Amino acid sequence: MTTHAMHEAHAARTAGIVGAGSIGVAFAICFARAGWRVRLYDPDAARRAAAPAEIAQRLADLARFDLLDETAADLAARVEMVESLEAAAANADLVQECAPERAELKRDLFAQLDRAAPRDAILASASSFLAASKFVDATLPGRARCLVAHPGNPPYLVPVIEVVPAPFTAEAATVRAIALYGEAGLKPVRVKHEVEGFIFNRLQGAVLREAYCLVRDGIASVEDIDTVMREGLGPRWSVIGPFETVDLNTRGGIGSHAQKMGPSYERMGAERGQHDPWTPELVAQVEAARRHALPLEHWDARVNWRDRQLMQLARHRKRFIRDDS
């Protein structure tokens, strides 16, 4: 489907966004790029006044890097600043709450949104750590359509979005939310159970915890740790994830890697007080998923593909990445 056809197909979609901070503004850009009508609200009049210029500036930057299929002006015209939460929620297919990470505030907002939004609208929070069970009241009539949708930051450049249903979220609402975010050009992943921090921040947190420990223990400097990530793990993980990385790093795949390296990783975890060995059952589960995605007879070809992707990335970095510090 062409971009124009996609926009025509989704022209009837409306997103209401509550909170015009950096994430709310970024979501407005995402939905506008997908051809949606966007209504953006913030209780702070100063924020409402500042948001249009921020949107225009971000769109201008995206245009400068040839990342827009339409003019910045056409996209900005799809975003309407409104004066009330009720106006933002009116006729919305999806309402995205982007308020600060405070349970009581979100509880009040979801009560208001449940009254204001159409009965079939999805009500989603951009919460980074708080699960919906922490702020959606048990007596809320529409709680079955409430969930968390935590984006990468900014979502128009980091398109992953974690869809986290609560135990009370209807399966149909979860499926619809995943479909709507996909239509908006994002990459939704489903978090199967509520857990603080979801996937994104738990993975990021694991790296940060070890990074802080390495500094504390005098093993490495802050600058050297950032260098290892920027010049080592970062480029590799921008092409493939951690499971595929080790699957392709060891001939024989991830099962062979776990056999050879698992004991070392177990000792490193235990050193930090985290004893989570890779049991044979767990390794078998992960290996089965990897072999489903990549049969071993295709392993060499995929390794060559990975290397070519890294070559393209290296070429781009050589040409365009400059140290502006």
From TrEMBL:
Similarity annotation: Belongs to the 3-hydroxyacyl-CoA dehydrogenase family.
| Taxonomic source organism | Paraburkholderia acidisoli
Residue ranges occupied by any 3-hydroxyacyl-CoA dehydrogenase NAD binding domain in the UniProt entry: 15-192
**UniProt-recorded name of the protein:** 3-hydroxyacyl-CoA dehydrogenase
Name the top EC class: oxidoreductase
- State the PANTHER family in the record: 3-HYDROXYACYL-COA DEHYDROGENASE FAMILY PROTEIN (PTHR48075), LAMBDA-CRYSTALLIN HOMOLOG (PTHR48075:SF1)
| GO BP annotation list | fatty acid metabolic process
- UniProt signal peptide: none
Pfam annotation, one family: 3HCDH
Molecular function terms from GO: (3S)-3-hydroxyacyl-CoA dehydrogenase (NAD+) activity; L-gulonate 3-dehydrogenase activity; NAD+ binding
| UniProt entry tagged with the keyword Transmembrane | yes
